[in-house]
Amino acid sequence: MKKWKIFGVVFLVINLFIGYRFYSKIYNPVVIDPNGKYLYIATGSSFQDVVSGLKESNFITDDTSFEKLADIKKYKNNVKPGRYRIDKGMSNNDLVNLLRSGVQEEVNITFNNSRTKEKAAGLICRNLEADSAIFLNLLKDSDLCKANGFTTENIGTLLIPNTYKFYWNTNAEQVYNRMLREFKVFWNENRLQKAKNIGLSPQEVSVLASIVISETSKKKDAPIIAGVYLNRLKRGIPFQADPTLVFAKGDFSIRRVLDEDKEVDSPYNTYKYPGIPPGPIYISPASYLDHVLNYKKHDYIFFCAKEDFSGYSNFAKTNAEHNRNARKYRRALNKRGIKR
């Protein structure tokens, strides 16, 4: 009888030990010294890809215990792609529950200061799983453009710079659809009515805004410059906007436009072709779209950068007044040795 009691105690101790080991492998911290904060699981990843990613980032050191728990919790065949935040002190149980849930942290995507849709596409997709080349091809798809009210020339107006939240595993098609939704949100009834009041489509407002932002970074001057261009548009006077020539030539290092530049054969040459160009020369932020929609009403027909290089402009109602302003600016350029 005594032997059976001893055997029973030994058996209990062994089971308690096994139970403790099992418990510790499930609930004790395994993320001790991680290399980074996030685990990225690409679309189409296998369970072994997940394990490899966890080991490479030093999120786990004992893959066997993780795999056993993942099998018990039926995660092995339920891998969900995404970007998961892994915190120090997490246990195997925490890891499996997190990855099985599919609850991931969103990524903040900010894009601005983009001259072209190519650069904007790269910025948007830079921190996403989405392929920027595929996204750019969607922007260049003529049938898709037409179906959504754009052309391949003005499709850049679809992109409204801002900070957007995306899930990391968003694909190119989903990025496109999100941008389309954001475009429709921005162009609410109020803005659409304002565009209608000045006789422009949303795309044309954006193209005009792209010229305005290329002319000035000064918020005070932007609505006034927008008013100059709208005055010229109403009177049938070509815009004669130097930034459109820079865009047409594709040389953004140009600081001084010369007469020879005005001969470039391009629909973006607003010295040769009147009206609004076929597409944006800059991906305009929302604030500049609003500068156009809320343009300043005045009688100015001309403007020229101030000779003090402050970034502000001199405005004029007559050609004679404008020529005087232009001469002052040219002399300032010459004095600084800016020839190109």
Number of strands: 6
Percent in helix: 40-55%
Mean pLDDT: 91
Low-confidence sequence ranges: 7-24
Whole-number total of structural domains:
3
Beta content = 5-15%
Structure overview:
The protein has 340 residues and is mainly α. It folds into three domains: 100 residues, Endolytic murein transglycosylase (Dna Ligase, domain 1); 80 residues, no CATH class; 147 residues, no CATH class. The strands form three sheets. The protein has a two-stranded antiparallel sheet with strand order 1-2. A two-stranded antiparallel ribbon has the order 3-4. A hairpin with a 7-residue loop joins strand 5 and strand 6.
What is the compact description of this entry?
The protein has 340 residues and is mainly alpha-helical. It contains 14 helices and six strands.
SSE layout and pairing:
Layout: H1 2-27, E1 38-41, H2 47-56, H3 63-72, E2 82-85, H4 92-101, E3 107-110, H5 117-125, H6 132-139, H7 142-147, E4 163-166, H8 172-186, H9 189-197, H10 202-215, H11 222-235, H12 242-249, H13 286-293, E5 302-305, E6 313-316, H14 319-335
Antiparallel strand pairs: 1-2, 3-4, 5-6
Annotation keywords:
Dna Ligase, domain 1, 3 domains, 340 residues, elongated, mainly alpha, two-stranded antiparallel ribbon, single chain, 14 helices
